[in-house]
Amino acid sequence: MQKLPAKTGWIWVKEGFALFRKQPAEISTLFLAYMFLMLALGILPVIGQVLPLILVPVFAMAFMQACAQIEQGQRVYPTLLMIAFRSPVLKTLLKLGLLYVLAAMIAVGASSLVDGGVFWRAMTGPGLDPTQIAGSNLQLAMIMAGVIYIPAAMTFWYAAPLIMWQNMTLGKALFYSFFAVRRAGAAFVLYGLAWSGLGVVVPMVISLIVGLLIGNATIMMFILLPISIILTVVMYCSFYPTYTHVFGKPYGSANGVTPAFGSDSDDTTR
What we know:
mainly alpha
């Protein structure tokens, strides 16, 4: 596994757009079905707050599998959301999800050292009144939580596909994920900056144009909402090339089972 140049981060973004263009309606429908399911789970009392986080690795594999099938020219259907639930590694993916929750709690909890627990209460409680937010270091606490979470994000990034597509144990997948992200650090920095820019600049430019031409807030919202959804779906699609450029393409992934790897790895990994 060789280090990837920084420009690879932009290549991942472009490949995400390329995957989206092949089946835009299908992958968008998959995403909307996922969002609807998350909203439905959120209605559940108590567990509804943590269950969507626990299921992140499970549903993440639906999008990874969808991208693999798009790449192979196969049609994507919303039922793909259930693919990891039929996998023999489901329990391991759920354990990974529990680690997601634990890591997030540690990061948000540590930020209490900065703002006295305001961010923690905002994330876990019914909400805060403006007076509590005004006198706190909430923004600094959010930044601190994000920085603390970075090592966990590196550990989790590739873990789900390594578990499902390479049959790795939980510990081994976490280990390989962390060091793979570390070796591709420059590419991930550019990748993150690119998506940060796209997420801010594109809506800002569109808002400015619509504001100048129409000046109607309702129409602006109707325009920005689908664009935001499209950008989010494309970002999900770009997760797949971050994996294939490092570990190669999954062999037989269209079967929805835990496949081994073929020899058609990307040239950047050789």
